[in-house]
Amino acid sequence: MGTADKRDTQRESELAESHEEALYFITHELKNAVIAISGFAKRLMRTEEDPDRRQQLKIIYDQTKFLETVSARYLLSAQLQKGELEVSPEPIADFYDEVISPVIEVLSKGAPEPFEKAREQWEKRKPIEIMGDKNLLRVVYQNLLGNAMKYREPEGDISFGVQELEEGYQFNVWNNGPGVKSDETEKIFDKFYRGENGTARNSRGTGLGLYNVRQIIESHGGRIWCETRPGEWINFVFTLPKHQ
After folding, report:
1. How many other C-beta atoms lie within 10 A of the C-beta of residue 244?
2. Per the confidence metrics, is the pTM higher than 0.85?
3. What are the per-10-residue average pLDDT scores of the chain (244 residues)?
4. Helix/strand/coil for 168
């Protein structure tokens, strides 16, 4: 590579870094603003008696909550990429109770049925003990179980389980539905990647969820991959060591 090429490459790298820093700052400020707006909209909805105005406030609230999610996911991915996110492993005495159950409590409001069978199977197991950052691991399940809810067939099944390995555990989250094409099983973990599947294109998302999941799993010393039968089901499988 010549001197001019090296200078161009360095300049492109500096511009990219500058762009990332500016976007990070803007997203951080945006997140604070939309949290305030959504809070006010929610309070106004509680006291508004006119149905049309209440519906308008609900639209404002829903849109700001989406922007809040987008901002949070970008900030998380930026921190992971820059190595600024602190992973704080601690003893987790019961993985289901401390990581999975709080996520299900939020996701299952109004639709508990998809989780009931898997929940019953987990509750019969002995507690899974592991070292990890429970807040970050909850983000993993928020994404994987949230996607399972979003992309499953209507009234379809969701399952999540665990298998003990010699040095750790292998977890999975499965749902029936369109899945992805076989050649997309690695691409879906790329930053901002949106699948070619029609369902994925037409759904609202950030393209950061699975990227963040992979970064979190790898920061815990594990790995994640995707198995699928296009048009029938998809299964996300990841490993975590018992100790770090």
Report:
1. 15
2. no
3. 54 52 61 77 87 86 72 67 74 93 81 79 86 89 90 85 92 92 89 60 62 90 94 95 78
4. strand
